[in-house]
Amino acid sequence: MIQLDTAYSLIVPTTVEDEPGNPAGAILPTLYRNGSASGVTVTPTNIGTGVYRLDFTTLGLGDGWARTDRLEMYLYAYFGSGSTNPRHELVWDSGPEPDAVMRGTDAAALATDLATVAGYVDTEIGELQSDLAAVKATTDQMVFSTPNQLDVQVITVAPNGITAAGIAASALDGKGNWSTHDAAAVRADMEANGTKLDHLWETTEDDAGTRRFTGNALAQAPTGAGLADGDIDDIANAVVTGVTAVKPRIKDSVAGTYRLIAGDTWNQQFEVAAPAADRIVVAVKEALTDSDDDAVILIDNASGLLRLNKADASVNAADGTVTSDASTITVSLESDRTIEVPPARYYLIVKTLDVGADKTWEYEAVLNVYQAGVRDVSAG
Asked: What do you get for the CA distance between the two ends of the chain, in Å?
């Protein structure tokens, strides 16, 4: 069976061109269909001694052809000057007996023809292998440390080109309309064309290579009425909660924030799980590294008030007390003494000491001292 509307290429050996007197180009292939000339154009190409490639295209059903048609290819050659008696040879048959499509019964001639075809194929394969080897030699130079990503190290750049270090000054010459502005020129253009940027630039000045705001720009800060007398007291009075009602739970790893109002008696209770000790000390300091002698307030459970504003206060020892039970430490300081404490933010330290004055436990927090006159809003 044959394929319709299909291009065929046949490679066939022949001896007709070897006839004496046969002029070059006198080979005439003819395609027969069911015993008659088909009229289809067959193009012969000589690809070796005694070997031709014959190219043709079959017609379709609309042309009256059928897949069961039988096709035969003959080669005709006119030899001898003015001869009209062609020699012809059947070189291909699409019929069901392909073994019969042999050129005669000359086995030696057939072997020769097959060797010629094999040589032609070997030549083409050899050229293809050579081309593939050249391609492989190039691709073998490529490095793919990451799949589908070519390593940058294998790329070489011509002089004045683009490299990993940057773009050479002349790399973009003739490569399009690239800007040649330097940084100063770009800045000048931005200043000339940007209104908001221009106003911002005018508020600064150069200070040994560093931009800073001018004194005039800083002097133009927004103005307002500010806080009136007593506003601070009102604010503090609104945010400060009751003093004596607070019993915070102290934990060694959690810092708290407490308050004292100058001129009010300070009573602060701490629910603690402190270890038993010979001495319990409550200190208020400007810095955690200050010594007890530099404490703003220093009270212990044995001697009462010891220091006030970094000075000896033992004459008023009874004005300060530290007491404790199994779960609570309470510190107290009379109003006559709290009035002397300057309003500020201090560190509050509660610690226990053994007989040898070695610290066995300590808690650190923050104490805010407010000025006299601030009252708890909950107290009316």
From this structure: 115
